[in-house]
Specification:
The protein has 245 residues and is of the alpha+beta class. It is built from five helices and 16 strands. Helices cover 18% and strands 31% of the residues. Strand 10 and strand 11 form a beta hairpin.
């Protein structure tokens, strides 16, 4: 278990989305931690729970691990035997229903600064079927590119870990399989993650960890395209999560 839960006081200038981004949280994380609080007008003096405490994904702790239902990316930098192990974690936007990110292990195979995006035919067809007949089939590099300004290409076909021109979608199901990062977090990872870095995409909605002889349980809503874990622990945890909600 890493990090700590904080409580901050909102003022009239900040939305919950602003607070989430400042503390590297996604939309779902901040809203579930603050039920009943308005997303756009939390209210001057409202106490906001900032859930920046996380159970690490299952080992191995190498390279990048993306836990899709948790909507979190973990980066484990390489270190020598004499250096302490460290981890950096960021919220992510994940795939919308019908466009699941593949599970399994791969690597970063390329890095692209100022990427362009040739829109796949199936994504063009989706937009046109929804009435967006003018959706472009090509986005040049620039601030309007949905891939953002920095992209890490994985070995899974057309699956990138990249920034976004719509940062408020981080923490939601917004992509066609790619992993979306806040632009500043993409800027952090891009120079630090070399080509060849291992990447593992996992489906782990229930996480168990320990710290100081205490057991912690984290439960995320399962993603429909992936198998639901079997066993009584998962069902009990989901029941408890619904009660809290």
């Amino acid at each position: 278990v890493v990090g700590q839960i904080h409580v901050v006081t909102a003022d009239s200038r900040n939305t919950l989305v602003d607070i989430a981004r400042h503390y590297d949280l996604g939309y779902e994380e901040i809203t579930l931690a603050n039920p009943g609080v308005s997303v756009w007008v939390p209210g001057e003096g409202t106490r906001i729970v900032v859930p920046t405490e996380f159970i690490l994904p299952p080992q191995p702790w190498v390279g990048i691990v993306v836990n899709i239902p948790q909507r979190r990316l973990y980066y484990f930098p390489r270190h020598t035997a004499k250096e302490p192990a460290t981890v950096v974690t960021f919220p992510i936007g994940i795939a919308r229903p019908g466009w699941p990110t593949p599970l399994g292990s791969t690597r970063i195979i390329a890095k692209e600064k100022d990427p362009s995006w040739v829109v796949p035919k199936n994504i063009q067809e989706e937009h046109r079927s929804q009435g967006d007949v003018n959706f472009p089939d090509y986005f040049p590099p620039g601030p309007n590119n949905p891939m953002g300004m920095l992209a890490l290409e994985t070995g899974f076909s057309q699956i990138f870990i990249h920034g976004t021109n719509r940062p408020w979608g981080v923490g939601m199901q917004v992509s066609h399989g790619c992993i979306h990062l806040y632009p500043e977090n993409a800027a952090f990872l891009f120079p630090r993650v070399p080509v060849g870095t291992p990447v593992r995409f996992i489906n782990q909605p229930v996480m168990v960890g320990d710290r100081d002889h205490l057991i912690y349980l984290s439960v995320s809503a399962p993603i429909g395209e992936y198998p639901v874990p079997e066993g009584g622990l998962f069902m009990q945890a989901m029941s408890a999560r619904r009660c809290r909600s």
